[in-house]
Amino acid sequence: MDSGDKYLIEALKSQDPGKRDRAIYHFYSDHDLKAFVTGYIKNHNGSEEDADDAFQEAIILLDRNVRNGSFRGDSSLKTYFFAIVKWYWLAVQRKKRITVGPLQPDDIDIGVESVEDDLIYLEKKEFLDRAVASVGLRCRELLGYYKLDYSMKEIASLMGFSSPAMAKKQAYRCREKLREFLSGHSEYLQLFSNH
Amino acid sequence: MAEERYQHQRIEDYIQGILSPDERRRFESDLKNDAQLQENYRLQLMEHEAMDHMIGLDLKDRFSRWKDDPPVDPGPALPSPAGPGRGRLILLAALAILALLALMLYYTSKEAGKAGGPDHNPGIPDTAVWKNREINSRDTFSTGQDEPKIEDPPGRNIRENISRDMQKQDPEDSDDRYDVAYARIANDFYQEPEDLYAGLRSQKDGPQDNFGKAVGLFRTGKYRESLTLLEGIPGQPNSNVQYLKGHNFFRLGRYDEAAAVWAPLAKDPMLPVYEDARWNLFLGYTAMLPGSKGRWELLRMALSKDQNFNYKIQLVDILAKLK
């Protein structure tokens, strides 16, 4: 792994919002990556708009997988990013019931996601959209910071709470709200099991 | 209630991967046999995925904003000395005090040197101790005696650099002005040449042996000894030798010499160390600011324009810090 990748991984995992933003912007502003995604999606029955979606989705997934340790560093971040794009597009096509060709080894050999999960991923995504909408924008922002392990002091400052204690109280309320929605939809529970 | 809280925390710790291996095994075994635990676990997993999803949605909002308003200026110019803000005034005042202190310490240590005083001057701040050592070793060179055996423990480079920077504030020392704050930032971004270490493992025989030893000395912080060994390698020095020399100079706070050996390497894209040399050269110039402003600006522009520059993200970060 080169030093650039190491630095980016560290930045994505960091609790410094500025550093994280710059790391994400690094991918977002990379014209080579964007050109690759556009070329790939267009060559596989997608539109310019699909390419935009895939590009953004891949950055989001890359960020998530780096933070939660799913990215093990067996490949470069760029290679991993490309694999996510391919995997994502495959999932979208399957969801639309478009016949896709057999998987190529490089679609699956760097552990992006298990291929069987691709439909579940999209189904989950739709459900999670609803869950997030149920807690409101402010809770969405707060719980996002909470998940990123920002300190309550940082969250209070970012969101204008009077104190870290107030931020903590609010985080608790938001999480309760989220749980209430989720437990009211237990039919989706089987989508969230690793066992 | 307490039991419920305990279970919630246990699941949370499992999801975050912070249970010990034993606890983890126990949890997984309980999970297989306990339907209630399974349900609670899935619920908490859902919560976490929902929170991850929130991060993703927040990023999408950012992407929309960034189309018109990027989060950082990819190539901010060096701040102009004109029109300082309050923060800058405070920084300037702090620097002026440091420079004054450095001058006082410099003359104090000179007096101590004349009187044959000890290296460690009780009551003088830590940085000054390093400064004294540096001056004493210089004096030793000038009198032609053997170089004293000074250990260069890893991690002390910033302190030493700063002490050297402080000396450079002395108008008699040099026309170049180093600024402690810039040197500190350059050191914050400095990384050891780990790729070079890896490449060296395969090199054997003759002069390369000395090179390997020089690397070993560098890694243990013996920069002067490493330099001596590198200087002794016969023949035309290759790019790795020059590259390592630059690192030794940088670690010793001899930024001008580091830049001098890195500059030719940073001009030849065919060299394996080309990208690293460009980045390190940039750090060298940064450490020498504001005296190196012209060279710094030229290199900054070249690196900012290069979409494929390996250290692009570090460059954006250091520029943001300098801003």
What would your notes on this structure say?
- The complex is a heterodimer of chains A (195) and B (323).
- The longest helix of chain A is centred in the last third of the chain and has 31 residues, at 117-147.
- Chain A starts with a helix and ends in a 12-residue tail after the last helix.
- The radius of gyration of chain A is 18 Å and the shape is globular.
- Chain A has two domains: 3-115, Rna Polymerase Sigma Factor, Chain: A (Orthogonal Bundle); 123-192.
- In chain A, 71% of the residues lie in helices and 0% in strands.
- In chain A, helix 5 crosses helix 7.
- With 195 residues, chain A is mostly helical.
- Chain A has nine helices and no strands.
- Chain B is mainly alpha-helical and 323 residues long.
- Chain B has three domains: 2-59; 89-150, no CATH class; 172-322, Alpha Horseshoe (Serine Threonine Protein Phosphatase 5, Tetratricopeptide repeat), CATH 1.25.40.10.
- Chain B contains 15 helices and no strands.
- Chain B has helices at 2-15, 21-33, 35-68, 86-114, 126-142, 157-168, 180-189, 194-200, 206-219, 223-231, 239-251, 255-265, 274-287, 293-305, 312-322.
- Chain B is elongated.
- Residues 73-87, 111-176 and 201-207 of chain B have low confidence and may be disordered.
- At the A-B interface, helix 1, helix 2, helix 4, helix 7 and helix 9 of A face helix 3 and helix 15 of B.
